[in-house]
Amino acid sequence: MEYSRVEIRPGVWLTHLWEEKFKTACFSVNLLSQLSRQTVSMNALVPYVLHRGTKLWPDMQALSEREEELFGTVVEPIVRRIGEIHCSGFYAGFPEDEYLPGDESVLSDAIGLSLSLLLDPVTRGGLLLPDYVESEQEKLLDMIAARVNNKRSYAVLRCMEEMCAFEDYAAGRLGDEAGARAINYKKLSRHYRMLLQTCPIELFYCGHADVKKVRAILQDQLATLPRGEIDFDIGTEIRMNAVEDQPRLTVEEMDVAQVNLVIGWRLGECMEEPDYPALYVFNELFGGSPSSRLFLNVREKHSLCYYVSSLLDIRKGLLLVSSGVQAQNIEKAKDEIFSQLEAMKRGEFSEEDLETARAGVASDLRSIPDSQSALEGFFVSQALAGADYGPMELAELVCEVTADRVAAIAASTVCDQIYLLRAPEASAEGTGEEEEGGGEA
Prior knowledge:
With 441 residues, the protein is an alpha+beta fold.
């Protein structure tokens, strides 16, 4: 695997990964903008509306037929949040030319289809089609509303929103219902044009073609890209301390069978110069695996919860623990979660525990090159962080993480938010049925 990153036009970067082991190639184009409550839903809606058709292939049927002509090429919208940078665009997968019959080639046409969706959408009077906008707007509203269906992930989302209520991060990936409903086709058309003119653009390619060939194709097909003053002032604000002296408590009532307890910490001063390998190992050891302290103690030893796990947003500097508990066990589970973190601050874990965590993280990182979509996600995130090493290099760094480095991260954490999603008080007593995602305690 050979990696390179180069600026091919002002504000347009190409990450090129030459890799021979796949029989398919992939390409993505990402418009980068600052996450904002005012624009997040429009950013999320743009690629879905553009995906409805281009001037040459003006509807979904025509696009599907074009993809079939390109030997099963698939182009899909992508919308993601990396820290407080919002990324929206397209991801394409297509067969490598040497596996096609005769002298057929789809490399240029598959990349061209992706960029045609971005640059040359079907319009009327220079505006996006109202029917397409309204249809995709309803789908976006459905996606926003559907977040509540999985109570476990919804509780984590709500904890993040409350924890970062005064920060752009709270806008999320899709925005909220009010922001989505306020969109109309004229407003979205203006916003789309503005994105093309001002957004930095991150391109990614993984496949058999060398960088010179891919770069030449892109420079030709991006010749019509309209550019104005590019907004390079995008990034993620990392808060080191909690908002208040004591963790804030938010209780939300809903018809749920078990209490969803989520606790949020700021990673604190360790984010001034983040030790990424140690952060991964810390999370794995604390609550990121079935061999973690939270799982083995809070769930298995003390039987205080149906599930418990931790997750990190390394780009934003957040640590969250998600747990499903019975109402009568809330305080006990919370106290034990804090107790396990305190033990990690004191370095109370064995070398065997540490080695198991290092091996687990390294194994996950070494599996990334087995998937082109995983490689794309990894390298786009790395590009936005200004990092220039791949997953295999990161795996090697993980294997060198020491106990002191892990304990230092634990000691740096500052609790900021406690969130409870529970049944109304009158019906909470005695509730212990298991929801999706839990296991028997």
